[in-house]
């Protein structure tokens, strides 16, 4: 019979390790019996619990620290958990049932959970302890790599496994010249066969990385006491301003061994995750179960469930895990699961599509799928993994197996939703958080009617996002037409929508980002990479001339006033008014290209010249040289006016009805420098033949014999949208007034990162027309507000940066770091 918790004191549970495994185990125990334990968690890092497998996107600039927090301070407080952060446990006294922390704190326990994770393996080569040699295991490591990337130069990553390649990808995106040195002849040899490894190597080299396989490190050498490079045993040398060791991990079992627990490679545990001491449990990368140690996240979740069952007297038992792997490098689809080594009795089924860069291989033995490697097309990864884990008989679909779930079903599952419906209830949907199909459906049945609600309820799709499509399919299958898409909050830091925030900024006279966050009860101390840029824009729009632009809240391209490219260099686009240029400007561009060794100059679709391959440190000098020729920034990087495209119009063309070029130049000089919710493009065509493609621009003017047709809401991108006819006017001045008024209405009403096309589709063209024309004075009032704002915006940022403005800020904040600052060390939370 279960103990009566009201009649007995809670058990004191002490957890050593505030990482993913330790906190997940606590979550699972709380879900089963929230009144059983009085929990104290010791963490080595001065932070709350965050998702380590998302460190790669943080390094790559795709996420900020706040985006990867799993359990914030509120979770500890809500569950009465004492968090002792930045104070690791250094000793376990099993006789007295106490632990001792580094600061000397002694904490008694009834049950102890060890979740110390793993330690990175450091090659014992000469120079391994030099300054500049780092590992890739926690946020501090990422901070060191970001600091190195800010200084520029070369990086060597030793190890071509998952972590090594993700580190190399992030550093490459940050602008460093990266060399990967891997001992084995195949990258990720534990997860990939030779063919897939070759495809991966080729793609990474195409992206600018140097991949050295079969490279055996002899030493890391230095200059002036700091790392300077890596030397291989065959004599080759590679310069390095930072060396990242990513050659493997070892279970962090030293604390358990010192306490006298049974330890082999890891801490020995049984199927209930109990160690050789019945009062001590262990979970995660630090344990060894049935001879196996695991370094991937999915087994950790399965261990945590078994541990919580046993701790709450509902034993189930852990029997080991079948693992799968995905590489978190944008643009590379890679999946691997099971045993692909083949062997006696195994047969390979292989499909190659060289044109698409697709390679698929499944390994079958005794009519069971035992391994799969997918490169270039991983859509069927979950299905293969489900078949593999269950040991399903595939004899009936053997001939179609390699073509995926839809074909193996005889075409019955060509609909993606039908394919998801066919997955078993225990099929894994979200590998990052260990969430099954059944768990997602339970969450939906409990009232989660939107993607954000599912993310909040069970964390599916809340990390890397690769399973978002599966979750959306489950929402559709479960709720049909009742799936809710909103109201969409500005971000997860607030319960307010974009419209609410914009309205309250004006109503409450809020004039600074901290002011907004305080008044509107932000749930994070400094916001996140989604809300800070939005708030910065909304304040700029609301208080022109009064609010000072917050550079910390801008994305890297806007901070550097250039477009970062995949090799870490930048492209620079000077403005050409209406697409016009002259010999002086062309000579200046040619001089810059030669002087700074730019490898490519390209004519853009907006009738300008784009200079590629400029190094970050050369940007101020490039800007200064172009400024000297009278050229200013083209804002090709900005959420702002990009270009005004024109045709030659009536001055030269025999079909032209009006001076489209002259009007385009006037409009560009009126609108340049304006910050907007998203990029904004304008075009002026001199006749209905529409050579300037005005009818796929945010604002387009088509000249006709009787005047000017004004069009809005076009988009020529991934989803092409033709414009809507807004109105027709008779004069250039009217066209310019309506243009300014439309831009201001868009600036004041659209959501940040919402282009004119989706904005008009959301609010309706009638709403836009009403805002402009229902009141006879609206156009003039909106245009006046726009022109007032422009008096504070039409300063060339290139000239300011070339002159040294924000230099100190950029030096300290490092242009390519995440948008928000790391919180201070976490104190004990009750």
Write the layout of secondary structure elements.
Elements: E1 11-16, H1 20-32, E2 37-43, E3 49-50, H2 55-60, E4 69-71, H3 73-78, E5 82-85, E6 89-93, E7 98-101, E8 106-108, E9 111-114, E10 118-120, E11 133-135, H4 139-151, E12 154-158, H5 162-173, E13 177-182, H6 194-206, E14 210-213, E15 217-223, E16 226-232, E17 237-239, E18 242-245, E19 249-251, H7 254-258, E20 267-269, E21 280-282, E22 287-289, H8 297-311, E23 324-326, E24 334-338, E25 346-353, E26 358-365, E27 368-375, H9 381-390, H10 405-408, H11 416-421, E28 428-430, E29 435-436, H12 437-445, H13 451-458, H14 468-479, H15 498-507, H16 513-519, H17 531-542, H18 556-560, E30 563-564, E31 570-572, H19 583-595, E32 600-603, E33 609-614, H20 619-628, E34 641-646, H21 660-671, E35 680-685, E36 699-704, E37 707-712, E38 724-729, H22 732-749, H23 756-763, H24 765-774, H25 778-790, H26 797-802, H27 807-813
Parallel strand pairs: 1-2, 1-9, 2-5, 9-21, 11-18, 12-13, 12-18, 13-14, 20-22, 34-35, 35-36
Antiparallel strand pairs: 3-4, 6-7, 7-8, 10-19, 15-16, 16-17, 23-24, 24-27, 25-26, 26-27, 28-29, 30-31, 31-33, 32-33, 36-37, 37-38
Helix pairs in contact: 1-8, 12-13, 12-14, 15-17, 19-20, 21-22, 22-25
